[in-house]
Amino acid sequence: MAQMESWSWPPSYDAGYRPPAGQQHWFPVRETMDPEQRDEAILGRIQQLMAYAWEHAPFYRRKWSEAGLEPGDITSLEAFEQVPVIYKDELRTDQAAHQPYGSYLCVDPVEVTHIKGTSGTTGRPTAFGICQRDWVAIANAHARIMWGMGIRPEDVVLIGSPLTQYWGSWGAYSGAERLGAAVFPFGAGVQGQSLRTLQWMRQMRATVFYGTPSYALRLAEVARDNDIDPRALGLRKMFFSGEPGASVPAIRQRIIDAFDVEVYDSGSMGEVAPWMSLGAASNEPGVFTWQDLVYTEVCDPTSMTRVPYGSEGTPVYTTLERTSQPMIRLLSNDLTRWEAPDSSRGRTYPFLPKGIYGRIDDMFQIRGENVQPNAIDDVVMSAEGYGGEHRIVISRTGTMDELLVQVEFDAAKTTVAEDVWVKRVSEDLRTVLGVGAKVVTVQPATFERTDFKARRVIDDRHLFDSLGQGSSS
Known about the structure:
Blueprint: H1 28-32, H2 35-56, H3 58-66, H4 77-80, H5 88-97, E1 112-117, E2 127-131, H6 132-148, E3 156-159, H7 167-179, E4 182-184, H8 193-203, E5 208-211, H9 213-225, E6 237-240, H10 249-259, E7 262-265, E8 278-279, E9 287-289, E10 294-299, E11 312-319, E12 328-331, E13 334-337, E14 351-352, E15 358-359, E16 364-366, E17 369-371, H11 373-381, E18 386-397, E19 400-409, H12 418-433, E20 438-442, E21 457-459
Helix pairs in contact: 6-7, 8-9, 9-10, 10-11, 11-12
Pfam families: AMP-binding (PF00501), AMP-binding_C_2 (PF14535)
Protein name: AMP-binding protein
Organism: Candidatus Mycolicibacterium alkanivorans
């Protein structure tokens, strides 16, 4: 097997290393090697990782013992599929019983130097305890993937997402810093901050922006409202995480049109940082699964075994460089489809052509059809005359579930009459979804904008009648 760059356990990186300016890959061998050879190395790392977790983490020792497994049983990646998955609720429950980091912390708590975590909006927040060795490894991983995006030391990277416990902001920050770029951690979420973001972006000549797709579109609106041309800001690249969008054709194109930039998708879960281990390396929809950083399996959500390439499933993640809180087969509950490695893409990792495009628990059913909100987003946001936001309302009249899509309609952006426009969008939705939707237009700026992640779905069984205003079909 070819000797892989910086492949050791625990991970160790040369802090002074940076590729030559014209080199496409941070680690040419690791990123372009034969996938089967890489899989051999990954299996060896998984065996090391499981032995380490068995010794240091009662959580894993207990879970695997209950399943009748020991680390020595894992002699192939196929055998690894029999290791039980971890659920987020298990992590929360374990942390409540073993505060503050849970019994899956594999280092002395005094070694924790960075604390991040979930928001806790749907229950007890989960704390991520990161030791300095892991922080360095994550920064190196993110720098490597950002290098693949074409970000270079001469860039000025503006971080346009909340600088709180949210891992996304800090991952982008640490990666840009390790890469040698100038980092501008501006943040987001404070009233009036969007205009200041644009002003500082222009003043500091930012060339790269990181945030959520929703916030990028919000910035474009604020810019136009204040006579600022987003295309004249000087940005050359924007990369995103936190929500689907950068690989959704309609959302992606709106960002490109607004800013005249290259767009890169990325992002998995904070629990498995480096979350950019799902990350683009070209100006096109989709992301690579950087398997030598976080081993990603796209699995059947029932059997939790890998689905064939070309199939849809839910990602299951195993961190290969985390020593403080390693995640071993963590279930994401997201949805994606993967394709086999193809060296013509420039790297030999499996590829997710639509990125992460939804969550199993976000999917809803209307009259027997499974509907993903992002499918609706793509239809309405690509319609000429779309006014900037929309809402999806699931309701019920009598015994039948109904789907209502409220869409801001801007007559100045189309020559089509409003009633004709509604009919066209309704027909497009029926074609894509396989079920009818009631389309209702509202005035532009009806819906509140967001500086972070968009929340567009309302499941309300009594709201339908009160929203029956405007043109509809």
